[in-house]
UniProtKB/TrEMBL annotation:
Domain annotation Glycosyltransferase 2-like: ranges: 8-136
Membrane-traversing stretches: none
Species of the source: Aquamicrobium soli
PANTHER family recorded: GLYCOSYLTRANSFERASE, GLYCOSYLTRANSFERASE 2-LIKE DOMAIN-CONTAINING PROTEIN
InterPro entries: Glyco_trans_2-like, Glycosyltransf_2, Nucleotide-diphossugar_trans
Pfam families, sorted: Glycos_transf_2
Name by which UniProt lists this protein: Glycosyltransferase family 2 protein
Length: 332
């Protein structure tokens, strides 16, 4: 491979036979990619075979199979342990890289993490030609821990746009020196947790506005599903960061806000679980026996009702494609 091939692309895949071929092909077509490591995380379909079907015979594709589903954090750590390239890029099995992504991202060398813009496309459009994306002004900037954490607090009624969705290229050396890997207890927010811990440990996290990552929005996406326990584990991850002696000032304040936000979602989900299992009366008793959770439960139920009313009163529009980061197109 050319001397510019410095990137390991990691794809954790579970039952992704329909989509993984495009993901693999989009990675292999880039000359900066030295290796593509697919971890088939206990799939019940032909995910591994579909990935192999996209091989370009360059010797860069490796398939690692796990007998039982372990979750994305374990799968990604497994791939990191079985790869060597100095730069690591995560690609979800539903998604794809746009042509020339790494040409644009790797121009400068002043970062430990570097991320670009994301275009969200409808699943029904995902198999068509590559989306036409404007040339955006790069306008690079660096994230700090406080702004990153605060940027991962979602807002009701707004399109999902948390900056934890960014898919940065990461320096393996930084991860190794700082002892960073994905938290394998997490199946929700594992990216947010890794990036937040990296920033707390001094990572230079650069963001540019040029678009190189295509994210496919699917109703049945695994990333769109999570259990109540997943929210609890994410709360605990925030609390673990809050316990670090180096977390102070704005970063500490942002972490407290994020932890309260996730805890409120957890308490609402726990209330709804009790209601689904045992009925409204049991759920009411549960709420009364957890008075500290009442504001989150009442606020969440009220917001859900309001959201449902808005959807019934206003026809659904089609906001996609859209971009994660607001950006200005280059004037030609």
């Amino acid at each position: 491979m050319a001397s510019t091939a410095t990137v390991c692309v990691i794809i954790a895949a579970k039952d992704a036979a329909r989509t993984i071929g495009r993901a693999v092909a989009s990675a292999l077509r880039d000359a900066h990619v030295a290796e593509v490591v697919v971890v088939d995380d206990g799939s019940a379909d032909r995910t591994s075979e579909a990935a192999l079907g996209a091989d370009d015979a360059s010797g860069r594709l490796r398939i690692l199979r796990l007998d039982n589903n372990q979750g994305p954090s374990y799968a990604r750590n497994h791939a990191i342990a079985h790869s060597n390239a100095p730069l690591i890029a995560i690609l979800d099995a539903d998604d794809f890289f746009l042509a020339g992504r790494f040409d644009r991202l790797l121009v400068e060398d002043d970062w430990d993490f570097v991320a670009d813009n994301i275009v969200f496309v409808e699943a029904r459009d995902a198999d068509s030609l590559e989306p036409e994306v404007p040339d955006f002004e790069a306008k690079p900037y660096f994230l700090d821990a406080a702004s990153f954490i605060a940027g991962n607090i979602s807002r009701r009624g707004a399109a999902r746009g948390e900056i934890g969705f960014l898919k940065p290229v990461m320096r393996r050396a930084f991860l190794d020196i700082k002892g960073l890997r994905y938290d394998e207890s997490l199946r929700l927010g594992e990216d947010y947790d890794l990036y937040a811990r990296a920033l707390i440990k001094g990572a230079r996290y650069k963001v540019v506005h040029g678009c190189g990552y295509g994210a496919v929005v699917r109703a049945d996406s695994l990333s769109g599903r999570h259990a109540t326990a997943d929210l609890k584990n994410l709360c605990e991850a925030d609390r673990a960061m809050l316990a670090l002696p180096t977390v102070k000032g704005p970063a500490q304040a942002a972490l407290r806000r994020h932890e309260r936000h996730i805890r409120a979602r957890y308490e609402l989900r726990r209330f709804l679980d009790v209601k689904a299992r045992n009925g409204l009366a049991a759920a009411g008793l549960h709420a009364l026996s957890h008075p500290f959770a009442l504001p989150a439960i009442l606020g969440g139920v009220g917001a859900d009702k309001l959201d449902g009313l808005k959807k019934r009163m206003k026809p659904a529009d089609r906001p996609l494609p859209r971009y994660l980061l607001e950006a200005r197109a280059v004037q030609k």
